[in-house]
Amino acid sequence: MSSADQPQRIGSYRLVKLVYTGQSSQLWKARDERDGKDVAIKRLLPNRVDREHVALLNNDRRVSESLKGSPSFLQIYDAGRHGGIPYLVLEWFPAPSVGQLIKLGYETYSYVLPQLIPALFEPLIPLHAAGWVHCDIKPDNFLFSPKLGVKLIDFAIAEKKQSNFFARFLPKPKTIRGTATYISPEQIDHRGIDGRTDLYSLGATILELLTAAAPFSGNTLGELLNKHRTGTVPSAAMKNRNVTPRFDEFLKSLLSPDPAKRPATAQEAFSMAKRIPIFLKKPGA
After folding, report:
1. Do 150 and 20 belong to one domain?
2. How many helices (H) and strands (E) in the chain?
């Protein structure tokens, strides 16, 4: 999209800064000129205004509206179309994503991990209590500030939890939804999903935070997905000698390919993450 194609304002919102461009949407910092308040605007790219991507944006809106009032999520203020292109107006949260932190390098962010890692579990508690499974937990979908805490974002592919019994009777999707690096085995195989699905992906996220490497890699997409199903659960302590054996075992439980071997709920996992020491000595000491 050329700069000439970019709107300068959307309704009462003046666009201030382009923050991020993804495969299907852009995120802008904007200002509501009615009250001077900073907001975030998520807007589909013009070449993604089709039935599928509009449905995903509408799902993001629906889930966000159902979670209004929780401090773990960006509040939604408005939605509409501008020039035929759908958009959402969300709370502005001035913090980088966890994915951006990882790109800065382990030594840069390691000191905040005792605070950050337990906090990553907190948004999953109200999300799952509301009956939702995020289905795309990954570093890029957490915003983090040491002063402001954690926000979980992007509910485009979130689904209501479903049992294996009912999943058997649903039509199988033609594609796998999720991010291959962090996706759970049950998402790959279109089995029933619940809160433990997000815990698996969060385990993959935390492993990457601790080791600067994703749990699995592959030369092909098929090889990568198969490792999620059948690969040996990786050890964070083998790559980061400062990780305690107890936290290493906790992380392995999150990454078990069998959901029954993971913590039963996000609340249980959160309690464990707060209780179990992550490091043998303070990072940077």
Report:
1. no
2. 12, 10
| Dist. CA 175–CA 3, nearest whole Å | 34
- How far apart are alpha carbons 114 and 280 in whole angstroms? 12
Residue 283: inside a domain, yes or no? no
Query: Which DSSP string do the residues of 250-283 spell out, in sequence order?
Result: HHHHHT-SSGGGS-SSHHHHHHHHHHS--BSS-T
CATH number at residue 146: 1.10.510.10
Check: CB of residue 92 under 8 Å from CB of residue 233.
no
Q: What pTM, to 2 d.p., does this model score? A: 0.91
Taking only the tens place, the pLDDT of each residue in 57-96 is 999 999 999 999 899 999 999 999 999 999 999 999 999 9
- C-alpha separations of 269 from 237, 248, 275 in Å: 19, 14, 10
**Amino acid in the structure at residue 271:** S
Give pLDDT tens digits for 239-255.
999 999 999 999 999 99
User: Tokens 């043998």 map to which residue?
Assistant: 280
Enclosing domain of residue 196: 98-275
